[in-house]
Amino acid sequence: MNILEQLRTQLPHDHILGDGIPEVGKGPKKKSVRRAYIIVLGNIKGGSGKSTTAMHLSVALVDRGYRVGAIDLDGRQQTLARYLENRAAFARNRGIELPMPDIRAIPPSNLTQALSERNSKIQRFGRALEELIFQNDFVVIDCPGSDDLIARICHSFADTLVSPMNDSFIDLDLIARLDPESGEFLRPTWYSEMVWSQRKRRSTIDGHRIDWVIMRNRLTHIDAHNKRRMATVLQDLAPRLGYRVAPGFCERVIYRELFHKGLTLLDLTRPGVDMPLSMSHLAARQEVRNLVSSLRLRRLDEPSAFLGTEGAGTGASTAAA
Ligand SMILES: Nc1ncnc2c1ncn2[C@@H]1O[C@H](COP(=O)(O)OP(=O)(O)OP(=O)(O)O)[C@@H](O)[C@H]1O
Ligand SMILES: [Mg+2]
Predict the structure, then answer these.
(1) Closest ligand 1 atom to the C-alpha of 144?
(2) pTM of the model
(3) Which PANTHER family match (predicted)?
(4) pLDDT band at residue 146 using 50, 70 and 90 as cut-offs
(5) Closest Cα partner for 178 from 229, 125, 105?
């Protein structure tokens, strides 16, 4: 089963993927359909940096010449969509061009019944994905930190799942339960089990192994002992829970300042932007670049990555440079 058939099985109404969608998996057309590589920002923990990272990743990929679609699934907050609105306004006001992903937001509907609202949201997500998946090289999805069907569906579509995590044992507790005395691993949490089951599901659907990447966010220069302990524990847990650790971002005020202008750290030296560039900003920009490199992303344009072919999207391995 390829990714579109997967979408069909998961969405409540088949017709969502009806008109205009190339038939995949059947006939000679299948080899000419290329889909985008999907990166999901997900973590059950709120405020861990999902939207900030989604924004920086999207802009970094456009900057590298890729066509990028973005979906803001966090209908209530719409941080990513708002961030990009601010960016468009900033570019307009300054009369400059800034690299922009093609964004779709999924706001809450005015349906009162929870089930209708859920189905409507899933349908609109399907439509957004369907609009973006064949037009772009990458689709970046900002998934809200909630435990619901849409979050589970969203995770199952990830080719790469990036989970930003604040550098604290409170955040780690949402990934793994540890013995308070010895620090030994006790059991996975609801979230890591959910990721595990979506990976299993995905692997049976199209053979893809979701590349789960945890990035530490808001690293501070103080509390070096805690920082080192977190690094050790995260590395030790990685093979057990099936993720890899990527370089993260330090705690920096600039992240909060950039939102209103719709800018990322990669924009500071662009003509017309005129933002002061300190040593700290340079270091932060390098952190973003390091993260992007560590994700080893590239377009799914090998034969094995085409929809409907054997071994489609063999995941991290085909995405890895
Ligand atoms: N490295 C960082 N340094 C300083 N502030 C940061 C950093 N990363 C994110 N923030 C700030 O933390 C807040 C939460 O970040 P963000 O909105 O990206 O998290 P989120 O995981 O998307 O949150 P939510 O779960 O509410 O959607 C924002 O104000 C953001 O500017
Ligand atoms: Mg968010």
Answers:
(1) 27
(2) 0.87
(3) COBQ_COBB_MIND_PARA NUCLEOTIDE BINDING DOMAIN-CONTAINING PROTEIN, P-LOOP CONTAINING NUCLEOSIDE TRIPHOSPHATE HYDROLASE
(4) confident
(5) 229
